[in-house]
C-alpha cells in the first residue's frame, strides 16, 4: 500500500492510479529514478567485482599484464558496445519478434564463426574476434528482447513462468551435452 502525502490517496494492490494528484506522478517518477540508479549501481559493482576476480585469478596463475591481456579486454569490450547499440533498437523488435529472433540467431552464429576463424588470421585477430563479439553482443540483446513476446504467444493462462523454466532447462541440457562432447 502506498500513500500520497499531498492528498492522502491510498493506492492498494489492484487500484487505479489517481489522475488528479501531480505529487503522485512526481513520487512515481522519483521511485523509478531510484530503481534505475539502484540497478546501475548493482551492475557497476558486479562488473567491478568480475574485473577484480579475473585479475586475481590471472595473478594467481602467475600471469602479469601483457599485450595479450589488453587485446582480450578490447575484444570482450566490443560485446558491450554491440549490446549498447542493439538496445536502441528495442522498440522496433516489438512489431516483428520472430524476425528479430531469427536475425539474433544468425548474428550469434556469424559472431561465433568469426571468433573460431580469428586464430587463422593472427594479423587480424583483434578485428575478427572483436567483430565476432560485437555481433554476439547484439544477438544476445535481440534474443532476450524477443523472448517474452514469443513465449507469451505460446502461453496458456498463467503458465508463462513454466514456459521460461522449460526453455532454460532445454538450453541447459544442450549446453551440458555439447560440453560433455568436447571432452570426448
TrEMBL record:
Family: Belongs to the RUS1 family.
Highest rank taxon of the organism: Eukaryota
Stretches assigned to the Protein root UVB sensitive/RUS domain: 46-177
Gene transcribed to yield this protein: RUS2_5
InterPro entries assigned to the protein according to its UniProt record, in alphabetical order: RUS_fam (IPR006968), UVB_sens_RUS_dom (IPR054549)
Name of the molecule in the record: Protein root UVB sensitive 2, chloroplastic
Amino acid at each position: 500500500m502506498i500513500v500520497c502525502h499531498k492528498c492522502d490517496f491510498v493506492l492498494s494492490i489492484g487500484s487505479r492510479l489517481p489522475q488528479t494528484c501531480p505529487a503522485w506522478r512526481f513520487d512515481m517518477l522519483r521511485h523509478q529514478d531510484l530503481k534505475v540508479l539502484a540497478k546501475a549501481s548493482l551492475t557497476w559493482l558486479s562488473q567491478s567485482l568480475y574485473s577484480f576476480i579475473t585479475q586475481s585469478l590471472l595473478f594467481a596463475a602467475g600471469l602479469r599484464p601483457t599485450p595479450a591481456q589488453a587485446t582480450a579486454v578490447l575484444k570482450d569490450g566490443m560485446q558491450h558496445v554491440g549490446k549498447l547499440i542493439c538496445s536502441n533498437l528495442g522498440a522496433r523488435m516489438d512489431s516483428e519478434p520472430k524476425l528479430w529472433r531469427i536475425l539474433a540467431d544468425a548474428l550469434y552464429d556469424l559472431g561465433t564463426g568469426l571468433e573460431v576463424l580469428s586464430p587463422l588470421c593472427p594479423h587480424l585477430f583483434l578485428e575478427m574476434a572483436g567483430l565476432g563479439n560485437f555481433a554476439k553482443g547484439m544477438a544476445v540483446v535481440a534474443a532476450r528482447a524477443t523472448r517474452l513476446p514469443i513465449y507469451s504467444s505460446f502461453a496458456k493462462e498463467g503458465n508463462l513462468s513454466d514456459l521460461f523454466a522449460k526453455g532454460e532447462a532445454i538450453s541447459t541440457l544442450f549446453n551440458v551435452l555439447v560440453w560433455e562432447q568436447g571432452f570426448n
